[in-house]
Amino acid sequence: MTRCDADGQGESHKMTNLMKLSGMSALGASLMAGLPAWAQEATAETVEAVTETVAEVVPVMDKGDVSFMMIATVLVLFMTVPGLALFYGGLVRTKNMLSVLMQVTMVASMIMIMWVVFGYSVTFGGSTSPFWGGTSKLFLSGVTADSMAATFSAGYVIPEYLFIAFQMTFAAITPALIIGAFAERIKFSAVMLFSALWVTFAYFPIAHMVWDANGYLFVRGAIDFAGGTVVHINAGIAALVGCIVIGKRVGYGKENMAPHSMVMTMIGASMLWVGWFGFNVGSNLEANGGATLAMINTFVATAAAVMAWSIAETLLRGKASMLGAASGMVAGLVAITPACGTVGPMGAIALGAIASLGCYFFVTVIKIKAGYDDSLDVFGIHGIGGIIGAIGTGIFSAASLGGVKGDDYSIWGQSLIQIEGVVITIVWSAVVAFVAFKLVDMIVGLRVTPDEEREGLDQTAHGEAAYHG
Amino acid sequence: MAGLCHIGKGTVVKLIIAAIKPFKLEEVREALTAIGVRGMMVTEIKGFGSQSGHTEIYRGAEYAVNFVPKVRLEIVVQDSLAEPVVETIAATAKTGKIGDGKIFVLDVSHAVRVRTGEINDDAL
Predict the structure, then answer these.
(1) Contact list, A363 vs chain B (CB under 8 Å)
(2) Which residue, A184, A181, A167, is CA-closest to A231?
(3) For residue range B39-48, what is the model confidence (pLDDT) as tens digits?
(4) Which of B46, B56, B58 has the most A C-beta neighbours within 10 Å, making it the best mutation to test the interface with A?
């Protein structure tokens, strides 16, 4: 991937680097050009420079792109509520159903507010730092309905409010993914406080590093089209740290902790699949051919992952389970997320199937042997699926394997960069998560009492029951 | 209650309790209706006998399910119908596999129809 400022478009560094730029080497920095709306804070000299650029490429806001991105944005919300909430909710016991629905809903809502107050600024605020976006857009300062953000095509823009909203949904779902690891035993206040800390010190910086044009990993050339590293590895690692720090559920390994509603889980997983088209296809920022590549990949990688998990179960234990199919579905979606913009459909099938088998092996063998209690397998599916997807992106993006990366593409070289991104994310997220959990433990305490845990969090934390009659 | 003095004076009434496989319920109901049973109580229950549960696997986690779902029938009939009811249930609910269930027959000291106050045979 070329560096964003390396192709001679001198004015690009004066622009706010607003976009989700991953996986777009062929486009390079030219997409930064021609965005007059950003000139409002700039010097007269800058305005001149921008005006010159405008003379060459008139920025276009295409109503088709805007419509597409608004739908993509609400589809990502749909992944979170109700999709993720129901997927997780069905997997817990009846007495904890509402606690999971509440945690997902409340975390996502809190982060939406945090995003517009400071999250957007520190992620995409235009600073040239490799690690954060600065403070220039706190409270969305300076953004109006006329502000525009770049897309991947030179001269094509979308409204900045739309870009802010789209990115907001990504920030909102990521900590909501984590709560599955310590479901059924964590204090509600601890979930909220941890999510606020983690999203601030892990999600925002890593999103900046991967997606902002000045971000450390973006400049290194890491490909993360829709957030396999930023969202799934990031959340998966924090989840693993969380369930180890918080400890096992009372009765883990002895009592029956079977999911209370596989129906809810199937409904939620299916909503995730549907919503994921907003996540993956919307990450293209424009309704064009590239978006359709992400779309077909999001279909077939997921289908292959569902098939792979179910076939593995059939061969190894004699029966294909609904939970297996739903788990394969999510594993495939996670794995294709970083890759969907740069691999071909056949590579997507291979990547989905490989990730599914990797996750299956992890949650049925390694997790059991390791003995930690990741209630809903957040690490086993999002973490492991994300890691396989991130590295697989380096492999299957090659033209020789059906991807879009041409002659000068080195599978080995790119895979090393992908691995670097994975390792940095693992270390960063794990350290932030560990410190955040310890802080939360000191301030409000992490766990409910054993009695409250036995009675169930619905009654003890929320004073309600999920089902009556 | 005016009718209380009649309690115990009617024909002998029997209570038949049967635990059967849930999917056999409809078949058993039809067969019992055909021999003249005019009512029954049905409850979804869990329990174990010689079938003693099974294992469910969720991802890597295996759970022993020790109590198996069954349906409990409670049928109150006059003495003469008790034997045919037991035979009908035994024949209809039978699959020949472990876990088909059990049937118990008890004496009922008296029965009352709430709407009319009729007792014993007349209450059925």
Answers:
(1) 59-60
(2) A167
(3) 999 999 999 8
(4) B58
pTM of the model: 0.84
> Cβ of A256 and B63 within 8 Å?
yes
Report DSSP letters for A256-320, one per residue: ----S-HHHHHHHHHHHHHHHHHHHHHTT-SSSHHHHHHHHHHHHHHHHHHHHHHHHHHHHHS--
Amino acid (one-letter) located at A152: F
Which of A 331-360 lie inside 8 A of B, CB atoms?
A: none
Give the lowest-confidence range in A69-83, A250-264, B20-34, B46-60: B46-60
**Integer Cα distance of A421 and A415 in angstroms:** 10
Q: Which residues of B touch A377 (CB under 8 A)?
A: 59
According to the model, what pLDDT value does residue B4 have? 52
Taken as a whole, chain B contains a residue count of 124
pLDDT tens per residue across span A396-424: 999 999 999 987 899 999 999 999 999 99
What contacts A289, CB < 8 A, 6 or more positions away? none
| Joined tokens for residue A67 | 């419509």
ipTM comes to: 0.73
For residue range A105-156, what is the model confidence (pLDDT) as tens digits?
999 999 999 999 999 999 999 999 999 999 999 999 999 999 999 999 999 9
Coil vs helix vs strand at B35: coil
Count CB-CB contacts under 10 A for residue A357: 18
